[in-house]
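@channel sequence for tomorrow's demo:
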Amino acid sequence: MLFHSAKKPVELQLIHLNKNQERSQKQFGEIISHGDDATDNPLCKLKKLLKEKAHKKETPLDGKDDKTIYVLDFDGDIKASAVAHLREEISTVISIAKAGDEVVLRLESGGGQVSSYGLAAAQLARLKQAGLTLTICVDKIAASGGYMMACTADKIIASDFGVLGSVGVVSQLPNFHEVLKKHDVHFEQFTAGEYKRTVTMFGENTDEDRAKYQADIDRIHELFKAFVAKHRPSLDVDKIATGEIWFGEDAKNLGLCDEIGTSDAYLLEKMKTHNVFALHSRSKPTLAEKLGLADQVSSSISSVFDKTLQTANHAISKLNRP
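structure tokens (generated this afternoon):
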């Protein structure tokens, strides 16, 4: 693979969804054929309908072999960890697809780290730069960083209760200064550069620190808004950049998506005229994982962590005693 080290090799799997569908139809037809031949049997009626449908499709669809759709999946966590595989899949598609081919991404994410989702969105932009059409289907949620990805599409399709939006930025952290002060624990921090560190978890935060931190958050928000405006110029960004979320039809009315529907319905319709391939990648299991040793190591580490946490809690409880 292009972007993974040899220690974590990745394997790709290409699935022809048209053939999978034809195989399922054939198996279903065989099951029905074993039913009772009585004319009032519902299975027989269904079998007859399937035969009539099959006769109507005796001639192959003209030009189907020249039209290809590649289907990718992205299930995002807060770190957008799936981008490690997405970049491999996108590079593979770009290397084999023809100009005018379409990529359908089934996207599900509630967002997360700015830099991670920024990279994921940049990977999707590569598809359009390569002359491919990008359609993104949101069956459940594409919010915040997830919507940053979604807005790069030529077309966004969302289900009736698909969640879109949350064009905003949030950052929060606890501050333990008063707790440390109560127990006469002093916190010291050394920096070079006026704004190397502003708000902190352990020191005393000033109004100046908070103002600088808020300014940084506001700047990220402006960059987010500019990114959305660039990729969806018809969208009133100021109206939707409030951090709110919208569902299906409301999102469409605001211009956050283009159509209401599901990825399943869209792909089934496309199979009538296109060859549709699903591309999946995964890290090859290590020898330890194959032998089941990885779980044992993880369990041992977890046990050590639990014991360390218990010791720390015990020490803190002593400090709290009068």
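heads up for whoever presents: The longest strand covers residues 275-283.
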